[in-house]
Amino acid sequence: MATKWGILSASKIAHDFVLALETLSTEDHKVVAVAAKDKFRAKVFADDHGIPTYYGSYEELGNDSNVDVVYIGALNHQHYSLTKLMLESGKPVLCEKPFCINAKQLDVLIKLSKDKRLFLMEAMWSRFTPAYQKVLEEIQNGTIGTVLNVQANLGKPLSSIERIWKKDVGGGSTLDLGVYTVHFVDTIFGPSKPESVACKGTLNSHGTDENISAVLKYPEGKIAVISTHTKVNMDNSAYVYGTKGTIKIHDPFHASVKVTVNATDYTFIQPNTRKPTLFPSSVQLRYEIEHVRQCLMKSLIESPVVTLNNSCTVQEIMDQLREQIGVQFEEDETSP
Q1: What secondary structure does DSSP assign to 29-62, as a single string?
Q2: What pTM was estimated for this model as a whole?
Q3: Measured between alpha carbons, how far is 167 from 183 in angstroms, rounded to an integer?
Q4: Contacts of 141 by beta carbon, 8 Å cutoff, 6+ apart
Q5: What's the Rg (C-alpha) of the chain?
Q6: In this prediction, what percent of the chain has a pLDDT beyond 90?
């Protein structure tokens, strides 16, 4: 029986999510409903993707008994409230990154998920890609020895985009781009947490961060160096340095289709989508989509790959990064 998906928000990433889902078997996955605040936008999205039901409110999606699981692709500041709404409506949730604005919001959602025995996962799709799986395989096989250093950059000229600079939607390079770098470090060094975090950054006139650079010190002499930028193109590769060699995840590391292990290249061919995705290589969302199905079929309430603990650690680190450079949101001042 197919897993029946509800899509919350007719956003750009939701568009790519559905295109990626379409590359999987229709016997396993179906999108049965979409909801947006504007019913006309929901209808346009539904017509574009052949979705049979559309709603002009999120509550209606939560009350749709035909929906097995909800994918939330809304703006950052809505993740907490909409995930909470869906969980309270009895729906398992896959929520886009960053999971929340801060760790205290996430703590509420995790408690709610456990109380209701409902699946909850942050949609950190990178951790399911063939590139990331290859990196972990080579590390576990000891190919590059003991890993002692990780570096990851993610910089693109995005500063004019509203969701990046606007404070009241949870903007800034840390939450939008830095979440990928921190998750990558956690993929390699987790479940350990950093012993210390040192961050510098530049804020814009709206009080959100245009860029950050940070050093994360882990136990056993392990170091991670991360950078983000919203005004310049960086070399968005990531590197894992071990005592016996190096792994490079090619630009863009968070959506890469190429990995170099010492001198050997590995390339991962992806299927074509019905029409072009809006973000590079986001057809690879298909891997997390299938993972969610497998978790639901096993009646799990969290993923063994992107655990709730993984997401908590990442959210806590991002809280520290923002605190050190002086980025504070209204959500940091109030209780969830």
Answers
A1: EEEEEEE-SSHHHHHHHHHHHT-SEEESSHHHHH
A2: 0.97
A3: 23
A4: none
A5: 19
A6: 99
